[in-house]
Design brief:
Helix content: 25-40%
CATH topology of the largest domain: Rossmann fold
Distance between the termini: 33 Å
Radius of gyration: 25 Å
Number of strands: 23
InterPro entries: Class_I_gatase-like, CTP_synthase, CTP_synthase_N, GATASE, GATase1_CTP_Synthase, P-loop_NTPase
Pathway: Pyrimidine metabolism; CTP biosynthesis via de novo pathway; CTP from UDP: step 2/2
Shape: globular
Structural class: alpha/beta
CATH class of the largest domain: Alpha Beta
Strand content: 15-25%
CATH architecture of the largest domain: 3-Layer(aba) Sandwich
Number of helices: 20
Protein name: CTP synthase
Strand order of the largest sheet: 13-12-14-15-23-22-21-18-19
GO molecular function, one term: ATP binding
Number of domains: 2
Pfam family, one: CTP_synth_N
Length: about 600
């Protein structure tokens, strides 16, 4: 087994996740089997209880693991299926060591950070690296490991110590360290400054790790003078210093690595020369380079609770991009804070209210994503009602599906106090209820999580056709509440069709309005399985409906015809922007809370 460790220095948010994903894709394109591990030094056992505003979205895996969003990047770039153990946290490591101590596994020894914690980290990495994630038997050839945070963080120190030991444990020819660092350009002098990277490498060496490859984030290509300085002071060959400069979309990053021979540098360190082929990135190159050619827009209003941070809906945005690419459209995402659609905002902040409604009314499609808590729920219900009554394509995900059911019950069935017990535990008309198997005392890991099977109840419906007329599908879930089965018959008699249910037939998974151009709600999270060149079916149908291509897509899907390969350029307020690859993977504009439109450039 070969290991490639990716670390970061100077500042956080440099794009280590994209870099690690791109390295994995590049190595896979060379004919190697690749897996990935993300190390998060926080004390949480997993990301499940963390606020999306603080940490970004919680990515859900097939096995129900609630993990860091970088694992979503790994899955999308490398097209693999990871496990919960591919995300290591300080909480998991300490918990495993303490459990061993309680069992008496350490035979009365004093349990310490070194060697017990550091050994546990090494054992975890080695064990997980051998788990196949590509559907084939046997372990991968290379494991890409990303160490979260920045060199110098106090919480990272046990992991750095362990990785230093690990490099000796596996041998120098089996361990390659890629250090991602920042080379800023000061506007005053216009010169690329290498000193921050020099200090970062020095700090890394002082803790027992020596980088063989330097990946420098900068606005422009590193000039020869800067590269020579880095080579001299960081003791790294010039050919092993790579520039990750600003590019139009992150799909170009693997191509940057390829063009600068990053794979050859890795092969040299890992003694893989002659064992791997030249990278075949033809399909990926077409996707990346066709990005700027798309010019016909499709405008989507995303009505959510966490619109102040785009990472909160990262996979949703990726899935929208994948679908818009397939439909050969450029994507405009208008961020609308759900509370800004409510009457209370009209009195408290009329400008925000008017701006939010202006964006909603010009949208080609309306998407209500998942979320928790009652803030903004009324605004989401208002958005659903607007989409239903005005025949605007609508997609509701998880909570988005639940509020669609509540809106229908209130507006069509006349149940004015219809609600969810999540928002009103004492409601007399519960349309959405707490699942009986859930826990009301423990929050972490107690939801209905992971891949679950949905059976189509009707073959002649949009969702079934989009999924290729299959009898069932497997999608990932993350929820505590469900549609009240006692109300299903009444809802269906009034025109709301539950076209997908679980194996018991009692849990509602997909809801549709047949007399609507596109009105679909899903209890699962289809965004987690969307891939470049292979978009999620319901997202593809949503974008196709928004741009007038749904009939064509339904015909292709029902015949099993694959989606086109292309690329999308994301625009801001409908105007083309030449945004570059940024530390947080894309540029997120200002004014999200007030509902201003913002584009994401992938």
């Amino acid at each position: 087994m070969k290991y490639v460790l990716v670390t970061g220095g100077v500042v956080s948010g440099l794009g280590k996740g994209v870099t690690a994903s791109s390295i994995g894709l590049l190595l896979k394109a060379c004919g190697l089997r690749v897996t990935a591990i993300k190390i998060d030094p926080y004390l949480n056992t997993d990301a499940g209880t963390m606020s999306p505003i603080e940490h970004g979205e919680v990515f859900v895996l097939d096995d129900g693991g609630e993990v860091d969003l970088d694992l979503g990047n790994y899955e999308r770039f490398m097209d693999v299926k990871l496990t919960r153990d591919n995300n290591i946290t300080t909480g998991k490591i300490y918990q495993s060591v303490i459990d061993k101590e309680r069992r008496g596994d350490y035979l009365g020894k004093t349990v310490q950070v070194v060697p017990h914690i550091t050994d546990a980290i090494q054992d975890w990495i080695e064990r997980v690296a051998h788990i196949p994630v590509d559907g084939k038997e046997g372990p991968a050839d290379v494991c890409v490991i990303e160490l979260g945070g920045t060199i110098g963080d106090i919480e990272s120190m046990p992991f750095i110590q362990a990785l230093g030991h690990f490099s000796y444990r596996v041998g120098a020819s089996n361990f390659c360290l890629v250090h991602v660092s920042l080379v800023p350009v000061l506007n005053v002098v216009g010169e690329q400054k290498t000193k921050p990277t020099q200090h970062s490498v020095r700090g890394l060496r002082s803790q027992g790790l020596t980088p063989q490859i330097l990946a420098c984030r900068s606005t422009l290509v590193l000039d020869e003078n800067a590269k020579a300085k880095l080579s001299q002071f960081c003791l790294i060959p010039g050919e092993n210093i790579i520039t990750l400069y600003d590019v139009p979309n992150i799909w170009h990053i693997p191509l940057l690595l390829r063009d600068q021979k990053a794979h050859e540098a890795i092969f040299e360190v890992l003694n893989l020369k002659g064992m791997a082929q030249e990278p075949n990135l033809k399909e990926w190159t077409i996707r990346a380079e066709s990005c700027d050619l798309l010019h016909e827009p499709v405008r989507i209003a995303l009505v959510g609770k966490y619109t102040c941070l785009s990472d909160s809906y990262l996979s949703v945005l990726k899935a929208l991009v994948h679908a818009s690419v397939s439909c050969h459209k450029k994507l405009t995402v208008d961020w609308i804070s759900a509370t800004n659609l409510e009457e209370a905002t009209a009195k408290e902040n009329p400008d925000a209210y008017k701006a939010a409604w202006k964006l909603l009314k010009v949208a080609d499609g309306i998407l209500v994503p998942g979320g928790f808590g009652d803030r903004g729920v009324q605004g989401k219900i208002i958005a659903v009602k607007y989409a239903r009554e005005n025949r605007i394509p609508f997609l509701g995900i998880c909570l988005g599906m639940q509020v669609a059911v509540i809106e229908f019950a209130r507006s069509v069935l006349g149940i004015k106090d219809a609600n969810s017990t999540e928002f009103d535990p004492n409601t007399k008309s519960p349309c959405v209820i707490f699942m009986p198997e859930g826990s009301k005392t423990h929050m972490g890991g107690t939801m209905r999580l992971g891949s679950r099977r949905t059976y189509f109840q009707i073959k002649d419906c949009k969702s079934a056709k989009l999924y290729g007329c299959k009898s069932f599908i497997d999608e990932r879930h993350r929820h505590r509440y469900e549609v009240n089965p006692d109300l299903v018959t009444r809802l269906e008699n009034s025109g709301l069709s539950f076209t997908g249910k679980d194996e018991t037939g009692q849990r509602m998974e997909i809801v549709e309005l047949h007399n609507h151009p596109y009105f679909i709600g899903v209890q699962f999270h289809p965004e987690f399985k969307s891939r470049p060149g292979r978009p999620s079916p319901v997202f593809l149908g949503f974008i196709a409906a928004a741009c007038g291509q749904l009939d064509v897509v339904l015909q292709q899907s029902s015949r099993g015809v694959g989606s086109d390969i292309s690329s999308a350029k994301i625009y801001q307020n409908g105007l083309a922007t030449r945004q570059a690859y940024r530390p947080a993977e894309y540029v997120f504009g200002n004014g999200n809370v007030n509902g201003n439109g913002n584009g994401l450039h992938y």
